[in-house]
Specification:
Nucleotidyltransferase, domain 5, 737 residues, alpha/beta, six-stranded parallel β-sheet, seven-stranded parallel β-sheet, Rossmann fold, elongated
Length: 737
């Protein structure tokens, strides 16, 4: 292990030397406030952990050094970072002029600091006015700039500042694919853009604090329970200060009326912040029994507070970005985050102009739990950023080059640095085998794992988790970014809660089982679960014959008979999640007994189990084998033997297959008369044997108005896994407000 670690370090050293970095890369990280430090700290820890490659200089300025905002520079010292320089750059005031003067003061003080440090590169985060002063100073002093979180879209003046810093920066680390596309559209060099994810997610997704209750009680009181309190964080909107103050006042009124324990954080240093503090004091928030007003909460503790809150409300980017990692409900007020990509946990109140509107939003959101969202990161941002830093060639000309239209295609120039393939973990829980696969957005099965399905619940769940963890680790090696986990299983499933209500007899001890929670908790990924028939229909809709078809039905012909119904492009689940149990359509009142306990179901005639039953009867009567067939003594009679016998001229076997095909055809006719789809897709190992029989029955038995329906055999090699992947790839939330 030591040998390979040393070998890896040697290779990295060779890469740095090749890029002209014969000395350690001197990196200056400048932090201005509590928010940007939460994003920069993981990078700083990563740089500090590799002293053979980097020298770290920390510059602190802005609101970090203001007592009214908690003197948050202390948390940097508590993290054991040496602060090289402290710059007091905030000009106190309550209007826009104070922000301009603060930028000017920073521009006056920064040149002396940068002259002394002489960094190879400066890391600047985000969109604050302090960051604009940093980027301007570094650019004019010919210092390379790495900008974190460029390309994003939001409201207020921050949007313009962010894009201005992008134009000054030489390298870009963005968090989402949309942000990457925006940077390319802004004529930035694609080779200097890294799609890494948000660094704070590295900490969020690894945050495990069993003693979170002590943190909650410390900030909110001894009598508070999880999911029974609110975190409020609202900042002034500098382009419309008057309206934002009014909105904050309405928010506090709504929170007072809602009557839940609430932690209120002081706003950022912006024009209008003092007026917002006055509103808090006017309402008596600091002395109200239901409220706790604080200037600052350490990020480690803040993570636990929002992770276990009943709701977060305000207009902070933290609400639309970081909180999604925990599935905590969020109410986003006003226009400050307009344009941000958000998860399904975020409810937007565009015009928060009445107390009732905000109160109604609280009633809708409070106490809910959403699937965790990883739009802004997967927990591996810092390793990507460090690798990107090591690849920077200091011999390249400092002068930026812009890539004017035509814009480069969205295909990565260097897959290790720029872009990974968006993919899903697909799980197929079969009666015999448990399969897990990494499936790309295009439906390519990149990697597949197969194990025998254990008999007990505990062993089965343990194996699923083990295989998923193994596949998620392998995904990094094959440059796949996992968006979520999709699970296909037999039986009746509640897809809203991710619970298997009742399973088939093939999968024992698998009823009322919550699959979503343990897998989501273990992998920090959103998890979707659905019935295998529904998954097959989703696979056809995304990758197969059903693509672009408004109304179609998929029938699975395998060990059992199942299916899925797509109506007006949407999958039908039914009132009790029992829709599309197509195998249990009764086609004969006195037919053979089905595993469901009824008689005359399609499954009792046409499933693999039914054909195996009839094959055994023929074999016991010595009527199965014909010339050209042979069986070993220990060989188990199966449906395959019946099909082979029919092909070789066994009339009794052929008759059984005809009856099975007729039963399936009658079931399809019933479906046509009920749903009137334009397409019927037969899937599974028996589909090709039944397709002609089904078409014949439709021609004989169906109404003339539905006889034009197209009946085809699926061309998908693995609909179960592809369907499970479709759950993720179709529903991974990319809502844009």
């Amino acid at each position: 292990e030591v040998y390979f670690k040393n070998l890896s370090k040697q290779k990295q050293k060779e890469v740095m030397e090749k890029n002209g970095n014969n000395h350690k890369l001197r990196v200056c990280v400048a932090t201005c406030n509590r928010a940007d430090y939460s994003k920069l700290a993981p990078i700083m820890f990563g740089i500090k952990a590799e002293p053979q490659f980097f020298e770290l200089d920390v510059v602190v300025l802005g609101s970090h050094l203001i007592d009214d905002y908690g003197n948050t520079y202390r948390m940097i010292e508590q993290d054991d970072f040496d602060i090289h320089t402290r710059l007091h750059t905030i000009v106190r005031g309550e209007d826009e002029a104070a922000m301009v003067e603060s930028v000017g003061l920073a521009l006056v003080k920064l040149p002396d600091v940068l002259n002394r440090l002489k960094p190879d590169i400066m890391i600047v985060h985000g969109d604050r006015f302090d960051a604009l002063a940093l980027a301007t100073s570094a650019a004019l002093m010919n210092i390379r700039i790495l900008h974190i979180e460029g390309g994003e879209v939001s409201g207020t003046i921050d949007d313009s500042i962010r894009h201005a810093i992008t134009k000054l920066a030489h390298y870009h680390v963005c968090c989402t694919r949309s942000a990457e596309q925006h940077l390319i559209a802004m004529c930035e060099d694609h080779d200097r853009i890294l799609l890494a994810g948000c660094p704070s997610y590295d900490k969020l997704l690894s945050a495990k604090n069993k003693d979170y209750m002590s943190i909650i009680r410390m900030w909110l009181g001894e009598d508070v329970k999880t999911r029974d309190y609110i975190v409020a964080l609202q900042h002034p909107v500098t382009t419309d200060i008057k309206h934002s103050i009014k909105m904050f006042e309405l928010t506090l009124d709504a929170l007072i009326s809602f009557n839940k324990r609430t932690l209120v954080l002081f706003p950022n240093v912006d024009a209008g912040d003092k007026e917002m503090v006055r509103v808090m004091r006017k309402k008596g928030i600091e002395h109200h029994p239901n409220f706790r007003a604080v200037k600052h909460v350490p990020f480690d503790q803040f993570i636990q507070l929002v992770a276990h809150a009943g709701c977060m409300i305000g207009n902070s980017s933290c609400g639309v970005r970081e909180v999604g990692a925990f599935g905590t409900p969020v109410i986003n007020l006003g226009t400050r985050q307009t344009g941000r990509e958000t998860g399904e946990n975020v409810l937007h109140v565009r015009d928060a102009d009445t107390q009732d509107k905000i109160l109604h939003a609280l009633q809708l959101q409070f106490g809910k739990q959403y699937p965790c969202s990883k739009i802004y990161g997967d927990g591996n941002a810092v390793p990507r950023i460090l690798k990107f830093l090591k690849s920077i060639n200091l011999k390249e000309p400092l002068q930026k080059k812009f890539c004017f239209p035509p814009v480069k295609d969205n295909i990565s120039q260097d897959i290790d640095h720029i872009l990974e393939t968006q993919s899903a973990l697909a799980v197929d829980l079969g009666g015999t085998n448990l399969r897990v696969a990494i499936v790309s957005m295009k439906g390519e099965i990149v990697k597949k794992y197969t194990q025998l399905n254990p008999k007990t619940y505990e062993d089965r769940l343990e194996l699923i988790l083990k295989m998923c963890v193994e596949a998620a680790s392998e995904a990094v090696n094959v440059n796949c970014r996992i968006l979520g986990v999709g699970i296909s299983t037999g039986g009746r499933v509640n897809p809203r809660e991710g619970i298997v209500l009742h399973s088939t007899k093939l999968i024992q001890e698998w009823s009322s089982v919550d699959l979503r929670t343990p897998i989501s908790d273990a992998l920090h990924l959103p998890v979707w679960v659905d019935n295998d028939g529904n998954c097959a229909a989703l696979a056809e809709r995304k990758f197969g014959h059903g693509k672009g078809i408004e109304n179609f039905v998929t029938l699975i012909t395998g060990t059992g008979i199942g299916g899925g119904i797509v109506h007006q492009h949407e999958l039908i689940h039914g009132n009790s999640f029992c829709a599309a149990e197509l195998g249990h359509i009764v086609v004969s009142l006195d037919g053979p007994e089905c595993l469901c306990g009824s008689q005359g179901c399609i499954e009792a005639y046409a499933s693999g189990i039914a054909l195996q039953r009839e094959a055994k009867k023929l074999h016991d009567e010595d009527l199965l084998l014909v010339e050209g067939m042979s069986m070993k003594k220990e060989e188990v009679v199966s449906a395959a033997h019946l099909i082979q016998a029919a092909k070789l001229g066994n009339t009794k076997a052929d008759g059984i297959l005809r009856t099975a095909g007729t039963a399936l055809g009658l079931g399809v006719v019933n479906i046509l008369h009920t749903m009137n789809p334009s397409l019927v897709i037969l899937s599974g190992v028996l589909a090709s044997h039944y397709v002609n029989a089904v078409k014949d029955v439709i021609n004989r038995q169906a109404l003339s108005s539905v006889k034009t329906v197209e009946v085809v055999v699926s061309n998908l090699a693995d609909p179960a896994l592809l369907g499970a992947a479709s759950l993720v790839l179709d529903y991974t939330t990319r809502r844009i407000y």
